[in-house]
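Lecture notes, part 5. Sequence design as translation. It can be helpful to think of inverse folding as translation between two languages: the language of shapes and the language of residues. The source text, in structure tokens, appears below.
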């Protein structure tokens, strides 16, 4: 039943910003209810200065002096690895920045979360937030080389923020206790930097037209040297009260209050579905979380408590950007149709072949071009490696363990021996419970080759395959040399289930079908490509020997292409094969090439305009595969008197083509009776062409272009 798979084939004074960025974002980037405090203003600076909740209004300095040496000499929007931001620079002594008027009266009790960077944190005072509408020196600052402080209170924080370092800070003010507190994240740990008693109310914002005003990133009017010359702000959030349980606010905990659906907001402690910046905690609950078929889930850190369980169904996608602490159970399901081969990869850090006990399980060895049965159930299956499974009767498999995340490296080999069509093909796999975007990898590793259950389909910017590699999918690559496939979280994506139907500029998609299966050949005229194989553009053709599967390809020497990108050319030789005889339909399925497209069937002697109609032909299994030529120039077969005046004569070792005076024998092709091209001459400039043709005796087909007209004749060489 099994057999072989058919042919291939820190210290407190230092920040680690990659850790810093996501954690406090949990506090300042989400609209959850913390300690009964409501998020009333949120700015994410993704191309606008608008409060997404509509609870406040923002204004900023212009390029000119406001009369007190404030301005934004330049400002605008951008993005980097830390997210979208608004930036400013100032050419005046008191700097620039922005201010926010809050529609609710929160003068005494509030919380503010800010993600930002300053060009200069290290010289004297650098004001972060001003509460008194520029009338006093009091406020929240960097001081003493980048430490947090609230002037005029003498307390100084421990953590140091350097120039241009992105930081996440949250401040709270309690009008009942007069306590002002400031927090920051260091080495993935939330640290309280300040806790001062604000008996004088210096942290209570001034009311302007009855609205509390908070000013950010510029100096007051009392002094003139305490402003940064510029910076970036990624996020500002304002709550209508002090958040008292800061550490508890870091995690969005599963409650299962409604059902088991991960994507139901009411099932989470923050009453929002987690996003890529949320730390998620899964405790024991009556309704354990389930990520259903076709659903996507994201988080930063993921913690599964002892006794708790998370289940992913086949077709679900989970992306974790941080750490996974699995103290309970994570189950990832995979369905495989019985009685067919499926290429898979392992989504958890450790499992063995015992999971597939009773089924056929194989790996592929490039060096020997062989599929090998995995017999021992204790064989450890390696993340990043691809495997072939023939399901006997299970149908569904469950991987138990910690999902793979972060960097995964998989070696691949290149052994140019044996079958040239299989050189360098390695079976690797997607180790993640999410998709991979191959558009981020094809320039380095070339095309990706997907197994569709009957044949391999390739993608390299275009193609019959897909840009996205599905969760737990095994796939072929052929980078052309030995090396290592380096995968990382940056390559992960929630996959798009359907492939893009568009084709490249100056491209054609040619199909051959028999009513049961349709195969594709992609030809693209690309001036950046060469006439040889280009790793970043082309894809080889992996032939299948599954029955009744028609296959089409272009021919490059002794190898075949499924994606053929090259500079503009007059013709491309095309091959076809199938294990069964029958009638097939050759079609031009999609086309962005403006020129003509003619198909020449050298075996049948037919020439058809594929732009006008498809071409039906018969094929005998085992016959020559190289029977077609695609022409991209006008192919008007001569029907006038010139036809009778062209002479083709042959001697023992030569062929002569003669046309009447005034005409040019432009190009000559000679094919053997099987359709194989064995001679080509072009760029003729006279009415006669003499060819040194030393070939075995037999019948040959001579195709001649005289001027722009086509003439064909069979000859017999003795």
């Amino acid at each position: 039943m099994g057999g072989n798979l058919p042919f291939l084939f820190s210290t407190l004074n230092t920040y680690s910003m990659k850790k810093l960025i996501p954690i406090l974002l949990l506090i300042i980037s989400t609209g959850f209810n913390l300690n009964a405090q409501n998020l009333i203003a949120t700015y994410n600076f993704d191309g606008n200065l608008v409060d997404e909740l509509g609870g406040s209004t923002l204004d900023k300095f212009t390029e000119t002096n406001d009369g007190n040496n404030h301005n934004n000499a330049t400002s605008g929007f951008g993005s980097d690895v830390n997210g979208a931001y608004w930036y400013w620079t100032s050419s005046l002594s008191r700097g620039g920045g922005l201010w926010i008027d809050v529609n609710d009266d929160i003068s005494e009790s509030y919380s503010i979360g800010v993600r930002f960077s300053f060009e200069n944190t290290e010289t004297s005072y650098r004001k972060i937030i001003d509460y008194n509408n520029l009338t006093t020196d009091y406020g929240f600052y960097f001081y003493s080389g980048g430490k947090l402080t609230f002037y005029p209170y003498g307390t100084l924080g421990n953590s140091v923020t350097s120039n241009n370092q992105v930081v996440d800070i949250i401040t709270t003010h309690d009008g009942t206790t007069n306590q002002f507190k400031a927090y920051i994240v260091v080495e993935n740990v939330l640290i309280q930097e300040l806790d001062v008693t604000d008996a004088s109310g210096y942290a209570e914002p001034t009311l302007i037209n009855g609205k509390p005003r908070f000013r950010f990133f510029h100096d007051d009017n009392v002094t003139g040297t305490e402003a940064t010359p510029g910076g970036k702000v990624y996020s500002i959030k304002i709550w209508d009260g002090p958040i008292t349980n800061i550490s508890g606010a870091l995690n969005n905990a599963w409650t299962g209050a409604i059902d088991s659906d991960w994507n139901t907001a009411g099932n989470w402690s923050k009453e929002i579905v987690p996003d890529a910046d949320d730390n998620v905690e899964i405790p024991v609950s009556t309704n354990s979380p389930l990520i259903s078929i076709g659903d996507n889930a994201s988080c930063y850190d993921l913690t599964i408590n002892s006794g708790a369980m998370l289940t992913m169904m086949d077709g679900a996608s989970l992306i974790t950007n941080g750490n996974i602490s699995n103290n309970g159970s994570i189950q990832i399901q995979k369905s495989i149709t019985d009685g067919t081969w499926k290429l898979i990869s392992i989504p958890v850090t450790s499992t063995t072949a015992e999971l597939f006990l009773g089924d056929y399980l194989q790996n592929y060895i490039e060096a020997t071009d062989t599929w090998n049965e995995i017999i021992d159930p204790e064989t450890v299956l390696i993340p990043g490696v691809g495997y072939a499974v023939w399901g006997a009767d299970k149908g569904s498999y469950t991987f138990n363990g910690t999902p793979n995340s972060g960097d995964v490296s998989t070696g691949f080999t290149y052994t140019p021996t044996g079958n040239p069509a299989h050189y360098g093909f390695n079976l690797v796999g997607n180790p993640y419970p999410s998709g991979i975007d191959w558009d981020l990898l094809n320039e380095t590793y070339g095309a990706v080759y997907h197994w569709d259950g009957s044949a391999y389909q390739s993608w390299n910017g275009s193609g019959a395959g897909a840009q996205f590699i599905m969760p737990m999918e095994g796939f072929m690559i052929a980078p052309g040399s030995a090396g290592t496939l380096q995968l990382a979280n940056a390559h992960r994506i929630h996959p798009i289930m359907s492939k893009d139907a568009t084709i490249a500029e100056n491209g054609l998609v040619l199909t051959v079908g028999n009513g049961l299966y349709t195969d594709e050949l992609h030809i693209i005229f690309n001036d950046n490509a060469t006439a040889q194989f280009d790793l970043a553009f082309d894809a080889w053709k992996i032939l299948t020997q599954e029955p009744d599967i028609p296959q089409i390809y272009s021919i490059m020497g002794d190898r075949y292409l499924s994606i053929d990108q090259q500079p503009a050319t007059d013709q491309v030789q095309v091959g076809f094969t199938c294990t069964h005889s029958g009638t097939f339909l050759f079609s031009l399925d999609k086309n962005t090439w403006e020129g003509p497209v003619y198909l020449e069937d050298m075996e049948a002697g037919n020439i058809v305009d594929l732009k006008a109609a498809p071409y039906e032909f018969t094929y005998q299994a085992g016959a020559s595969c190289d029977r077609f030529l695609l022409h991209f120039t006008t192919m008007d077969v001569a029907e006038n008197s010139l036809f009778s005046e062209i002479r083709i004569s042959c001697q023992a070792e030569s062929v002569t083509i003669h046309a009447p005076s005034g005409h040019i024998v432009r190009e000559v092709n000679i094919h053997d009776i099987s359709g194989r091209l064995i001679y080509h001459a072009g760029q003729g400039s006279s009415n006669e062409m003499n060819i040194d043709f030393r070939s075995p005796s037999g019948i040959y087909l001579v195709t001649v272009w005289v001027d722009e007209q086509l003439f064909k004749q069979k000859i017999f060489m003795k």
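The translated text above is only one of many valid answers, since several sequences can fold into similar shapes. Confidence is low (pLDDT under 50) at residues 1-36.
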